[in-house]
Design brief:
Blueprint lengths: L27 H7 L4 H10 L46 E3 L16 E4 L2 E3 L3 E3 L8 H9 L3 E4 L5 H14 L9 E3 L4 H11 L3 E5 L7 E6 L19 E2 L12 H11 L3 E5 L5 E6 H9 L14 E4 L5 H10 L4 E5 L6 H13 L5 E6 L2 H10 L3 E4 L9 H5 L5 H12 L5 E4 L5 H9 L4 E4 L1 H4 L8 E3 L6 E6 L4 H6 L6 H4 L8 E5 L4 H18 L5 H10 L5 E3 L2 H8 L2
Parallel strand pairs: 4-5, 4-17, 5-12, 6-7, 12-13, 13-14, 14-15, 15-16, 16-17
Antiparallel strand pairs: 1-21, 2-3, 7-8, 8-9, 10-11, 18-19, 19-20
Length: 562
Amino acid sequence: MARLHEAPRTPHDGATHEPAPPTRAEPPERTARRARPDAPRRQARRARAPRRCLDTPRWPEPPSLHPHPFAPPLWNNGFMREIEPLFVGRTFDDFLFRPQHSPVRRRRDVGLTMPLVKGIDLALPVLGANMDTVVGAEMAKALALEGGIGFLHRNCSIAEQAKHVRYVKTRHSYVIEEPAVLERAATLGEAWAAMLRLNASSFLIEREKGSGILDGIYSHRDMPLDRESDARPVSDFMTPRERLVTDSPAVTLEEAERTMFEHRIEKLPLVDDENRICGLVTMRDLKLYKQKPHSTKDARGRLRVGAAVGAAGDYLERATALVEQEVDVLLLDVAHADSDLAAAAVAALRKQHEGLRLVVGNVATGEGAARLADGGADAIKIGVGPGRGCRTRLETGTGVPQLQAVREAYLATEGRVPIIADGGIKDDKDLFLAIACGASTVMLGSLLSGTDEAPGLLVEDPETHQKMKLYRGMTSPEAVADGTEDEEIAEALRTPAEGQSMRVPYVGSVVGILARIRGHLQSAVSYAGESELQKAHCRMAREPEKYLIPLSGASRRESFRR
């Protein structure tokens, strides 16, 4: 067995290794004074004794990981041979990265595109967490417009979640393929109610209900200021068909923009040769397309959105409803996805929906990530217990420090599937460190929960009068109660909670938060010596020990305490 004061040995390669040199040289005279009379015989016995080889080799570790000579080994399990000792027990505040020579002239030109799954790239590698105080329909829409993507939570009915998917998919597109339609006999009161229900500002008017024959358009400019005419039909106020400018479904975006500008109109209905409604182009969407060229859209120009399902109960029915509404990616959301339950759910979803893009999580070990990759996951979500709303580590003692977990998953999957770092992000620097160490994208919860677009309740602190929003983990008692039928609440609450609720500061629109994150990520890429985040990820994840500096307590205070 290795002595406590011996230097670490190199990995066993079948050869006999000489003893490591002493860690501290002593003067020859001191060595001579301490020499025992039987020293030659003792040295000879040690030379003849066979050297013991351990099944688990003692890998060399950086001096910073063993500040004290009696410090025990940091790991001894089989899989951990794959991860560099630099990462063991470490997370985001344990590192800085060494600045490199930069080719960047303007940081705003730095590209941040990273893959979510095969076929979906994000111009901003930020995902909204599938939590009922983080991502609703408005947050999902805002994230997609800014280049990220949101995952709609499943703490609601199947119909409600499917409705939110449809809302995001129909808000903005090159062509609105299913515009809001009313029959000409509908009353103004019905039009008002439909506008509130659909969050629409105008309707195409069809001749008869279900006919699809364009008869006019009714917009906010045609609405009377009072409600005395609610019983009158919309045909009395609409712009009739003969005054409308229309085009064919084959029109290009450039042609549509030119037509709308020439006629000074904001909406261009698309009709076929039989005057049937085929779509709608709006000036607002065309301007948005130019203002936000990096928004996350599908091939038809519609915003992309993800949604979560479970691994038990009605999860197959829920997945089918979401796929019918053309969700772009599903998230199999399980607290402990390295399980037979999750594996069976993945297989069932794959069998029922071929070609489905499927993210699976959460796991925190390399072995778990490898099993999910082998089982058919298109991306793997990493993190057990690092988030502010989660108490799993406190209540069960389970988890892996988040940066170590990300690194394990990256090494275990060998780049076959993208890695999503979920949880533990407190500062903008943490996003870049997660990506530099192996993640492709980062999922955010509490950092987004204080925004206007988050569904959480806005309250005012009675003492400080500061505006706050409520944020909660999805296994908190409040979230469990809200997502459970009344007759099942008592049974659901019998399971001890592993989540918690809290208040977070109100910070305004998420657009400002995402702009700040984008700017800091671009600066980090420049400091890393690259012009694109993808290149920085590939280079630093290949040799992280070349770029990362482990921090002592003093250097951590110097870096992060202000």
